[in-house]
Every structure is written in C-alpha cells, then in structure tokens.
C-alpha cells in the first residue's frame, strides 16, 4: 500500500496563513517596518554625502566644510548600525512569536489527529515535520528573514537614491534587473519542487530510522538487519542525491547573478563617464551612483541566495500549515457555546466506516446505551470492535452516520468532549515523571488525597505505596519500570480522576495476562460502576457481568441481549461461550476466535 503522507498546504494557502498571522500582530509589524526602513535610509546617507565630499574636494573647498560632511557620515553610520540592530531584533522577535504559535497549534492538532491517519502517514512524517521542518523555519526566522528584509529595503532605497542623483544613472543601474529576473526565472521553478521533494525524502529517511529502531528486537530475532539497513541506505541516498541536485542548481544560479552584477556596474560607469564628459553630472554624483550600485552587490546577492533558504523554509512551512489546517476531530466549528447533554446516554446511528474506500469495517451499526448501562461488545478479530470504540469516542470520524451523547451530536460538544466521554485502550503510555503526576494528568489540580483514592479504587495503591519513593517515584522513560497490568491500572485511575459520564474500554484488560486478569477486570469494574460504559470484551467473563451483550460480525450487529439470554438462544455467542468456558473440547474450525 502506498504511504499516505499528511497533507501539505498549497503555496497560496500558506502565504494567506502567514499574512494573517503577521497582520494579527500589526503594531509589532508596523514598528518593525518603520525601524528597518530608517536603518536602511541611514545606511545610504554616508554614500550620498561621499559624492558631495568628492565634488567639494575637486572644487578645493576648505577643510572646515569637509569636516562637517565627515561628521554627518559618521553620525549616519552610527545611527544605521543602532537602528539595524533594533530592526533585526524586532524582525526576529516577530518571526519567533509567529513560529512559537505555529508550533503550539501543530502539536495540538497532531495530538488530535485520527490514529489511522497518523499510522497511514507513518510516525516519521510527523516527526520530520515536528523536528526537521521546525528547525529549518527557526533558522530562517532567526537569520534569513531579518537579513532578507534589510536587503530588500536597502535595494529599494539605493535604487531610489541613484535615480535621485540622475535618472539616467538610475536607469543604467536597472540594466542589470532583466538579468536578475532571468536568473530567478531559471531558479525558482526548479528549486521549489526540489525543496519540497527534499523535505519529503527527509521524512521518509526519518520514518525508516524510527521504524527500524522501534522494531529492533524483532529485527534481531529474525536476523533482518541487512534488509532494514538497505532500506535506510536507500532512503538516505535519495535525500543525499536530491541535496546534490539542489547544490548544482544553486551554483548555476550564482553564476547568472555574477553576470548581472558585472553588466550593471559596467553600465553605471559607462553612462556616468559619458554624462561627466558632457558636464551633465558631476564626478561626485557618478562616484556615489557607482558606490550605491556596488553596495547593492551584497543585498541583491542576499536576496538571490536567500531564495535558497526561503524556498526550503517555505516548503517546511507548507508542511506544518498543512497539518494545522486539518479539521480537528471531536471539535465544533461553531462559535457558540457547546451544547450540554441532557443525560449520560450514548447513541450510534447508522454508523458505516471504511478505511480504504472499498471494504467496510462497520456496516450500518445502530446502538443505544442508556445512562448507567454497561454494554459489552463481543466478536472475532477483525469484526470492527476497535473501530466502533474509536468512533464512539470521537477519536475516529465515521464515513457515515453520527454519534450522540445525551442527545447532542458529538461534534457539537466542542472542547468539552473529553469531559463527557473517555476511552482506555490496551496500549497505554506511562509518562515520564512521578507516579502521582502521571495520574494527575487527568485533573492537574487534584490533591494527593484524590490521587490515592483513585489508585485505591482500581487496586493500585498497595503496589504504588510499595515503590521506592511511594507516589513520588519516577516512572516512565528512565524511571521505575511498571508491568503492563500496573500501567493499565494507572490509565484506569486517570479515568476515575477525570470522572467522565461515559467510559469506553477497548480491550483495556488484554495486557494483564492470565495471572493479573482477575485483578485488572476488577479495576475495570470499579471504573465503569455507575457510568455509561461500552466495553470491548477481551474475555467473555467481562461480557457475563455486563447489562447487555452485543455481538459484532463483519461490521454488523448480529445478536443482542443479556449473557443468559444469548447463551440460551444457542447462536454465535452461545458457541463462543461454550468454547471459552471449556464446555466443548477444542474449538471447531467454523467457530471464530475471540480476540486475545
């Protein structure tokens, strides 16, 4: 299957986003433009005055008059230096502020992305955007953008000053402009796609590295090191080859820029010589014009060369904006106050879902769970149980149908969604930090007494107190290791602390193993007690204690009722129960296996 990368914003959409962000900070932006313009203007003053100084010297002016001009040149140079420093700082500050806001939005949206979308794109693509792309933009904001803005203002004001000396000198300098335009026309159409391709290649390289590191144990077990290394080499070689192609393109671009500089300066000197010969302009004016154009070598070179960095940063920005602009799952587009559910019921109406646009994981599921009711979903592997759980909690948007909590459409709950409904899966994460803080993630202001009560309710307080530093023991990466069952109890304790009205447990006891199954099932019961609950049953003993059992086959509900009713009915669930409870010897081939 072809990897489905996360979306990349179009150039127009990226530019529109950037302009909007800058205009939102219009006071900062206006001050930046004013200070930078004054700095560029002050930098031109010494050259303008130098032209006057040349004419004064040629005319034999007294030293006193010359001294005043020198003082003006020194004062202007100092002012230009101070204003340039302030302008540079303002530009960098504005850019860093916009980037910081973009980073926060990117992380927020990345955490809200549907899991299937992240899995389809691969973690490498997401990590490359969060790491490499942010780093590229950060370097551009800190170094390139301030330099670029200064160069643009210097170029515009220098050309204006040349025209002010004599319009013909200005036109002579502009003779280089067509060559610069041709250089850009050669470079830009080729560089844009190359930089976008380079960013994608870097994402693929990161994906190859991350997936290989994550699966290191499996790779070693199957002696699969060489194929994985070959995959990494291929991804790295592609990124390298694209980088070399970019470098060759930049070299050819630089040569065209150098030719433009030669033509421009030669034109100014030639026209200036002719005008001085005819006494149309002075030697000082020609000198100033030549120096102004020569001074443009650096800013114009910066403008041309920074297109290299700007193109790369633009490609990275488009990748970040592409994620930021993905519609959030489980949030409302309305600007009004989110609706409030009338009760704790959960209803799924005509739910259909497909991952590939062809086969359906769910086919018209209708399910209503009354407030406080505990419903168990039973079915073979691939029946659609986890898909149903993800859709019920808003983690995954269904292809068709809608979900209602207390009569309110899920999307209308807005940011209050997680206050009403929570999900615990078999894959839980233990965050780095103290055990108490790990549980407190669900309620940051919760006191220690509430933390202890939640742990006690799920049967985790005994082993938690036995840790080296009790609830203050550092867990997670680099901390005290926890068993799968202990990690699951922490996740269940978080749910108790969050206290949602509806809980979905997606095989939340699957990692306990046979020894810890009973204890973890008791923990799950404590979490679901008094709450509307949807339990994806890993063990049929969970279904036996539920108020209602729903059997899912091939994405459709085929049976529904209490445990006793379904066993007596003699259908598919009854066969599963007999196989599970050991009332028959072995499991016939026609009986699907319950997910283990």
TrEMBL record:
Transmembrane segment boundaries: 30-54, 66-88, 144-163, 169-188
PROSITE patterns for the chain: ABC_TM1F, ABC_TRANSPORTER_2
Gene3D superfamilies referenced in this protein's UniProt entry, alphabetically: ABC transporter type 1, transmembrane domain, P-loop containing nucleotide triphosphate hydrolases
Family matches, as InterPro entries: AAA+_ATPase (IPR003593), ABC1_TM_dom (IPR011527), ABC1_TM_sf (IPR036640), ABC_transporter-like_ATP-bd (IPR003439), P-loop_NTPase (IPR027417), Type_1_exporter (IPR039421)
Subcellular location: Cell membrane
Lipid bilayer topology: Multi-pass membrane protein
Superkingdom of the source species: Bacteria
Main location: membrane
Residues covered by the ABC transmembrane type-1 domain: 30-312
Alphabetized UniProt keyword annotations: ATP-binding, Cell inner membrane, Cell membrane, Membrane, Nucleotide-binding, Transmembrane, Transmembrane helix, Transport
GO MF, any single term: ATP binding
The UniProt record lists the keyword Transmembrane: yes
Pfam families: ABC_membrane, ABC_tran
Gene Ontology terms: cellular component: plasma membrane
Alphabetical list of CDD domains matching this protein: ABC_6TM_exporters
Domain ABC transporter: 346-579
Keyword Transmembrane helix among record annotations: yes
PANTHER family: ATP-BINDING CASSETTE SUB-FAMILY B MEMBER 10, MITOCHONDRIAL, ATP-DEPENDENT PERMEASE MDL1, MITOCHONDRIAL
The protein's name in its UniProt record: ATP-binding cassette subfamily C protein
Record organism: Hoyosella altamirensis
């Amino acid at each position: 299957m072809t990897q489905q990368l996360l979306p990349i914003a179009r150039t127009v959409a990226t530019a529109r986003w950037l302009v909007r962000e800058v205009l939102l900070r219009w006071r900062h932006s206006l001050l930046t433009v004013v200070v930078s313009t004054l700095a560029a203007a002050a930098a031109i003053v010494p050259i303008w005055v130098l032209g006057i100084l040349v004419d004064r010297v040629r005319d034999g002016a007294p030293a006193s008059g010359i001294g005043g001009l020198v003082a003006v040149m020194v004062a202007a140079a100092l002012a230009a230096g101070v204003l340039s420093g302030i302008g540079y700082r303002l530009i960098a500050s504005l850019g860093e502020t916009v980037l910081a806001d973009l980073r926060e939005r990117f992380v927020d949206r990345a955490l809200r992305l549907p899991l299937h979308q992240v899995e389809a794109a691969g973690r490498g693509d997401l990590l490359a955007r969060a790491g490499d792309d942010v780093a590229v933009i950060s370097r551009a904001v800190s170094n390139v953008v301030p330099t670029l803005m200064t160069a643009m203002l210097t170029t515009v004001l220098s050309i204006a000053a040349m025209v002010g000396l004599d319009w013909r000198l200005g036109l002579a300098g502009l003779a280089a402009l067509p060559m610069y335009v041709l250089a850009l026309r050669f470079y830009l159409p080729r560089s844009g796609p190359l930089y976008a391709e380079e960013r994608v290649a870097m994402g693929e390289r990161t994906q190859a590295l991350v997936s290989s590191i994550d699966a290191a144990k499996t790779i070693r077990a199957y002696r699969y090191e060489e194929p994985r290394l070959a995959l990494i080499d291929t991804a790295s070689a592609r990124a390298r080859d694209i980088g070399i192609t970019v470098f060759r393109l930049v070299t050819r671009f630089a040569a065209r820029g150098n030719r433009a500089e030669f033509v421009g300066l030669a034109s100014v000197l030639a026209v200036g010589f002719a005008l001085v010969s005819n006494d149309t302009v002075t030697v000082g004016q020609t000198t100033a014009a030549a120096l102004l154009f020569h001074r443009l070598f650096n800013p114009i070179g910066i403008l041309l060369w920074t297109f290299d960095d700007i193109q790369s940063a633009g490609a990275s920005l488009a990748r970040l904006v592409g994620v930021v602009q993905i519609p959030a799952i489980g949030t409302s587009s309305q600007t009004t106050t989110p609706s409030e559910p009338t009760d704790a019921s959960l209803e799924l109406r005509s739910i259909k879902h497909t991952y590939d646009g062809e086969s359906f994981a769910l086919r018209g599921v209708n399910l209503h769970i009354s407030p406080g009711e505990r419903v168990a979903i039973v079915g073979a592997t691939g029946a659609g149980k986890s898909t149903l759980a993800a859709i019920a909690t808003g983690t995954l948007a269904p292809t068709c149908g809608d979900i209602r909590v207390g009569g309110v459409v899920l999307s209308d709950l807005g940011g209050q969604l997680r206050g009403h409904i929570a999900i615990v899966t078999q894959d839980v994460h233990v965050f780095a930090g103290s055990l108490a803080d790990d549980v407190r993630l669900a309620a940051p202001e919760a006191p220690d007494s509430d933390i202890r009560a939640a742990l006690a309710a799920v049967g985790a307080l005994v082993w938690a107190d036995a840790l080296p530093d009790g609830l203050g023991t550092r867990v997670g990466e680099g901390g005290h290791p926890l068993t799968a069952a202990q990690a699951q109890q922490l996740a269940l304790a978080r749910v108790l602390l969050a206290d949602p009205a509806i809980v979905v447990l997606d095989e939340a006891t699957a990692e306990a193993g046979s020894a810890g199954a009973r204890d973890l099932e008791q923990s799950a019961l404590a979490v679901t007690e008094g709450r509307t609950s949807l339990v994806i049953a890993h063990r049929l003993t969970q279904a036996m204690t539920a108020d209602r059992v729903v059997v899912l086959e091939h994405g459709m509900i085929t049976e529904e009722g209490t445990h006793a009713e379904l066993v007596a009915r003699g259908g598919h669930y009854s066969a599963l129960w007999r196989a599970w409870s050991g009332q028959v010897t072995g499991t016939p081939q026609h009986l699907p296996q319950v997910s283990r």
